[in-house]
Amino acid sequence: MIPACRLADLPRGEAFRLDIDPPVSVFHTVDGEVFAIDDTCTHQDASLADGWLEGCEVECPLHASTFDLRTGAVDAPPAKLPVRTHEVVVEDGMVYVRLSTDAPNLPPCVTARLAGGPA
Amino acid sequence: MRTVAVVGASLAGLSAARALRSQGYDGRLVVIGDEPHRPYDRPPLSKEFLAGTLGEADLALESDDEDLRAEWLLGARAAGLDRTDRAIRLSDGRRVRADGVVVATGAAARTLPGTDGLAGVHVLRTLDDARGLRDALALGGRLVVIGGGFIGAEVASTAYGLGLDVTVVEAAPTPLAGPLGEAMGGIVSALHTDHGVRLLCGVGVKGLGGERRVEAVLLEDGRSIPADVVVVGVGARPNVEWLEGSGVAVDNGVTCGADGRTSLAGVVAVGDCAAWYDPRAGVHRRVEHWTGALERPAAAVAALLSSGAAAPGVPRPPYFWSDQYGVKIQFVGHTAGADTVTVVEGTTDDRSFLAVYRRGGHPVAVLGMNQPRLFTRWRKQLAHTTP
């Protein structure tokens, strides 16, 4: 498990971006739930932590695809693939993330960059 | 309703088809598209697709396992609408009778009169346009872009990245002054000169030089700009001619209520061809934004399925983005009527800032350059506070 941040430092309605590779974001919803998903939109290189959080969904800050924090599912184009979800554990006021072992759905430009190709 | 026909198979048409199914419509669904392609995403055509970093498969708007149980009539152009039985006449002679019609025929790129048949002159609207332009840009040389709007600016940016010698010609004194206002239009279009792309403003185009192939762009002040490739980016006109005589009222686009309903019962219109009534502004507005084509069909379909009984929701303020020279440009709202514009974060010199347009002290629009996080907060706030 990876320690992310203290729950007290993450106000409701806010997100915390874990700078690992690929980055993961922890969201604290207005209703007080905590979720973790891959931070990068599956369509293009955008940080979902910068997005529009409403209920249990976050809208990509660039092109408006919305991801369900509970399932990772995407509702509308331009993104077509879900983001990975990660297990969250809150212990003694600390938020931990247990990373998914699935392959991430990174956007083509990021995949190309990681592969050393043209981005 | 037993048959609904969606005329137009791009983002607005696909979104309407999806909305029909998600709102419980279970009858026959026919989607008619004049291009031979399945629905694809247009924004990358001037950017990543043109640059060669995205392929055609990446443009698909449908997911692999999606099944809308629709009949797709692709490569079939709508030629008319018969009001008596609400039948769509196709250019190949076929007729599609429908109980409900969603008009999503989009817009077509404007061209320059008298340039037909001259090789090397391009517009950019469709996948086929983009394929042709991509192949032309791959040869390098001198590109002249006519029109400093968003399409023209994105093509200029992409071509600059591909190593072409680029000139942008804009008839107005300041590019993008319409959507962004004079001050911000000047700042955003300065991205061209930042990168050594020539920007000629306040001068019209008289014509194009060349016999079979374009050789130059001739300006009204007498100058001649040598060109191997010319891109005409001077806006788009709504594809509504086919509705003539149908009883569907058309002005600048299909005239619609605040829920997409047209003057003809059982017919709604969405996307670039539709001018919805904007209750905030008290006028009809044709919004040519990707996000409008994505979001509004749900409201139009609700109105169609309920014969207008569904209360239209308040649409979000219009939002669009542009990517130029590696800078993310985002804009939400309307500048019309704004009396001030203030930079509230960053500096314009750094090309990283957020500017707020206000009318009587109230925010009505926001422009961001390379500020996606802050921009999103403002966009959210504008959606919740704009009366």
From TrEMBL, chain B:
<dbReference type="InterPro" id="IPR016156">
    <property type="entry name" value="FAD/NAD-linked_Rdtase_dimer_sf"/>
</dbReference>
<feature type="domain" description="FAD/NAD(P)-binding">
    <location>
        <begin position="3"/>
        <end position="294"/>
    </location>
</feature>
<keyword id="KW-0274">FAD</keyword>
<dbReference type="InterPro" id="IPR036188">
    <property type="entry name" value="FAD/NAD-bd_sf"/>
</dbReference>
<protein>
    <submittedName>
        <fullName>Pyridine nucleotide-disulfide oxidoreductase</fullName>
    </submittedName>
</protein>
<dbReference type="GO" id="GO:0016651">
    <property type="term" value="F:oxidoreductase activity, acting on NAD(P)H"/>
</dbReference>
<dbReference type="InterPro" id="IPR028202">
    <property type="entry name" value="Reductase_C"/>
</dbReference>
<keyword id="KW-0560">Oxidoreductase</keyword>
<dbReference type="Pfam" id="PF14759">
    <property type="entry name" value="Reductase_C"/>
</dbReference>
<feature type="domain" description="Reductase C-terminal">
    <location>
        <begin position="319"/>
        <end position="385"/>
    </location>
</feature>
<dbReference type="Pfam" id="PF07992">
    <property type="entry name" value="Pyr_redox_2"/>
</dbReference>
<keyword id="KW-0285">Flavoprotein</keyword>
<dbReference type="InterPro" id="IPR050446">
    <property type="entry name" value="FAD-oxidoreductase/Apoptosis"/>
</dbReference>
<dbReference type="GO" id="GO:0005737">
    <property type="term" value="C:cytoplasm"/>
</dbReference>
<dbReference type="InterPro" id="IPR023753">
    <property type="entry name" value="FAD/NAD-binding_dom"/>
</dbReference>
